[in-house]
Amino acid sequence: MFSLLLSASESPNILRVPLDELVIGTVAFGIVFGLLAKFVFPRVNKTLEARANEIEGGIQRAASAQQEAQAALAQYNSQLAEARSEASAIRAAATDEKRAVIEQAKVEAQAAAATVTARAQEQVALERSQAQSSLEREVGALALDLASRVVGESLKDDARSRAVIDAFIADLERQAAEGR
Predict the structure, then answer these.
(1) 136 neighbors 165 (Cβ within 8 angstroms)
(2) Number of domains observed in the structure of the chain
(3) In 3D, which of 174, 165, 173 has the Cα closest to residue 142?
(4) Angle at Cα 113 formed by Cα 107 and Cα 118, nearest 5°?
(5) Cα(68)–Cα(63) distance, rounded to whole angstroms?
(6) Crossing angle, helix 41-151 and helix 159-179, to 10 degrees?
(7) What's the average pLDDT block by block, 10 residues per block, for the chain (180 residues)?
(8) d(CA 86, CA 78)
(9) In 3-state terms, what secondary structure has residue 14?
(10) What is the reported pLDDT for 156?
(11) How far is C-alpha 178 from the chain's CA centre?
């Protein structure tokens, strides 16, 4: 360095820094750096740490919100699955109940139809027997009236005439049964 100083006196060097400016610049730099290090850098560090904490807190809040959302989604999906299974069970129960009601209605309708048919058959049998009895009386009365005209005497009150009429009707019934 000393040689640099000696050579500086011989020719002017544009890169040469005067010593007093170098010392003053170094001291000024040290003072400014010290002030910055003491007052400005701690505030900048605090601000940077606060922002880092906010960012980390935001990331943690976002992560916890995402976990909550995933938990809510899982709960929603499980509730949806439960609701679907309940709906399926309700549909199955309704279908079974519908079938049971239809079967019960069929059984009741068949029972009612059987009752109506039985009543109708009884009514037909009763009307048939009444018609047969009425027909027998009329045929008997006609036969008695015809026999009275043929014989020329009244045969209405005689028990014997009733027996003859009953035998005649029985014979007619027998002949009708054989003809079928």
Answers:
(1) no
(2) 1
(3) 165
(4) 125
(5) 9
(6) 130
(7) 52 82 95 94 93 90 91 93 93 93 93 92 89 79 73 63 75 80
(8) 12
(9) coil
(10) 61
(11) 69
- Reading the block at residue 83, the tokens are 């609701």
Residue 33 is encoded by which pair of tokens? 């750096």
Residue with tokens 């009365």: 141
**What gap in Å lies between CA 21 and CA 26, rounded to an integer?**
8
For 116, the domain range is: 2-179
Q: What is the pLDDT of residue 1?
A: 47
Task: State how far the alpha carbon of 137 is from the alpha carbons of 27, 63, 141, in Å.
Answer: 158, 108, 6
Extract the tokens encoding 64.
């916890």
Report residue 25 CA to chain centroid gap: 87
Q: DSSP secondary structure string, 112-157?
A: HHHHHHHHHHHHHHHHHHHHHHHHHHHHHHHHHHHHHHHHSS--TT
At residue 75, the pLDDT reads 93
Centre a 10 Å sphere on the Cβ of residue 155 and count the other Cβ atoms it contains: 19
Q: What pTM, to 2 d.p., does this model score? A: 0.39
What pLDDT, on a 0 to 100 scale, did the predictor assign at position 20? 92
Convert 79-95 to b/e letters by CB count within 10 Å (16 or more is b).
eeeeeeeeeeeeeeeee
User: Cα angle at 30 between 24 and 31, to 5 degrees?
Assistant: 90
